[in-house]
Amino acid sequence: MLQVYTGAGKGKTTAAMGLLVRALGAGMRVYMMQFMKGLAYSEQDVLRGFAPRVVLSTTGKPFFVAKEGMLSEEERAAWGDGVVIFEPGKPPKDYVEMIEAGFDEAAREIKSGKYGLAILDEVNVALFFGLLDRARVEKLLDEAPKETELVLTGRNAPDWLMERADLVTEMREVKHYYQKGVEARKGIEN
């Protein structure tokens, strides 16, 4: 099955992690590629401890990317050097190459047939920013072993992906403490 976790609310990666734990409990091997993320998240050390039953890879840089017009002047100022703004349709070439290389690695691993569950965390965001093209993702979906459950997470999942999916969960933000100025907390958001 193909599962998609999307939406503006918190919990997409967290839901995928819960499924990962369930899969481990059932004796499955799991592959997870985290796009747009470096090695700065609390769960990563724990996941590596499950090797070789869990293979975790990341591809991302320690900065945020945004299309022109996405961020307010206040948000741009708050991000400072931590954000790279690009013209829509013209993402940074080095970032695209890095994301594509990570995706190619993930595709090889998934197509190997070694995993009962494969998670492409934040791949929807990579698609949204044009860092990864639809054809590459669809090719993997066509070629993935039928016995491998695929989970694709991230905001802004494209319509074509949601139509193709067997399950789509949309996380909707009703209320969030970020709105009160609470930053990401270790062990909860990162």
Kindly describe this structure:
By secondary structure, the protein is of the alpha/beta class. The chain has a single domain (2-60, 92-180), classed as P-loop containing nucleotide triphosphate hydrolases (Rossmann fold, 3-Layer(aba) Sandwich). Helices cover 36% and strands 21% of the residues. The chain is built from 7 helices and 8 strands. It has helices at residues 12-25, 42-48, 73-79, 93-111, 123-128, 134-143, 159-164, and strands at residues 2-6, 30-35, 54-59, 64-67, 83-86, 117-121, 149-153, 167-170. The protein has a 6-stranded parallel β-sheet, sandwiched between helices. The protein has a two-stranded parallel ribbon with strand order 4-5. β2, α2 and β3 (54-59) form a beta-alpha-beta unit. The longest helix has 19 residues, at 93-111. The radius of gyration is 16 Å and the shape is globular. The chain starts with a strand and ends in a 20-residue tail after the last strand.
